[in-house]
Amino acid sequence: MQLDIQIPDIQHTPTSRRPVSPPLMRLTGASKLYDKGSSPREALRSVDLDIHRGEFAAIVGPSGSGKSALMKMLGLLEAPTSGGYSFQGVQEQSLSTEQRLWLRRRFFGFVPQAFNLLRSTSLQGNVALPLMYRGLSAERCQLAAMRALAVVGLEDQGHKMPDDLDGSQQGKAAIARALVCNPSVLLVDNASRPSDQPLCADIGSLLRKLNTEHLITVVLVTQQASAGHWAQRTVSLNGGEVEQDISRAAASALH
């Protein structure tokens, strides 16, 4: 695998959909054990899961069901304790630390559940940070940041500070920061949001737009079963195992 670290400018223009095989991400019998002294905890147990290029999948389950562990595994942030994971057909266990880092930076955009926006920095500055850390010129960073903000509908908010925005706008800013490096996959951690509250309509519709119009593969981790309204597919976890995996089309056929 050639590791070319040149970062292209953000484009986010639709390309032709093509049938793909094998899946973009594949977990095979994947388990995750967190060894915390005398009380080890099995977060995932023998999970088989395929995520295909261009999908919008919602990973749904109660607190402690293994959602965040699964997302970290998909994003090459953690390795399975047993079983396997492959990304674009490349086995995770064959990768060096440097190759994992390169793949994360090149292909993945992460949206943390707390958003983690710097309160003392403007939205444009926050969104530009990932490119600044890579040593790109200030002009290129700021231009890419404004393009990313435009994609999420905040093109006129770049000068504002995070505390000047409501929760929905802060979420969009965090998504823009994840988009600024032009990822193929967007991993959105919404796991801490209460299960009895629906996914914010602005965020849900934005994620669907990024998936359908910009052809970004989206994986949303949440407690909220209502997220299935926005996603093409809902994967329900319980006790570290896949309890149900159903597409929106299949769900509609049941009613």
Q: Summarize model confidence as the mean pLDDT.
A: 87
Q: What profile does the largest beta sheet have?
A: 6 strands, mixed
Distance between the termini: 46 Å
Order of helices and strands: EEEHEEHEHHHEHEEEH
CATH class: Alpha Beta
Number of DSSP-assigned strands: 10
List the strand order in the largest sheet.
6-7-8-3-9-10
Could you name the ranges where pLDDT drops below 50 across 5 or more consecutive residues?
1-8, 12-16
Question: What sort of overall outline do the alpha carbons produce when their principal axes are compared?
Answer: globular
> Would you tell me which CATH topology applies?
Rossmann fold
Class computed from helices, strands and strand pairing: alpha/beta
Q: Which range does the strand content fall in?
A: 15-25%
In DSSP terms (H or I, runs of 4 or more residues), the helix count works out at 7
Number of domains: 1
Evaluate the radius of gyration. Answer: 18 Å
CATH superfamily: P-loop containing nucleotide triphosphate hydrolases
Per CATH, the architecture is: 3-Layer(aba) Sandwich
Helix content: 25-40%
